[in-house]
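Duplicate of #3305? Posting structure anyway:
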């Protein structure tokens, strides 16, 4: 996994989690769902890159 892709995946996870928690605390469920989607996208990107690394190694 390249360092850039790893950083991007981790950033999406952290930002998504923060958005989800803040929006949920404020009662904004639409934004909370968008934050959850961003977090999930980061986790999927991470899993995809780890899968690629497994094939290479």
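Output from current build:
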């Amino acid at each position: 996994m390249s360092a850039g892709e790893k950083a991007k995946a981790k950033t999406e996870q952290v930002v998504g989690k923060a958005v989800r928690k803040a929006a949920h605390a404020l009662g904004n469920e639409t934004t909370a769902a968008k934050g959850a989607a961003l977090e999930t996208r980061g986790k999927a990107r991470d899993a995809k890159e780890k899968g690629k690394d497994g094939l290479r190694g």
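Confirmed duplicate; merging threads. The chain is about 90% helix and 0% strand. The chain has a mean pLDDT of 90.
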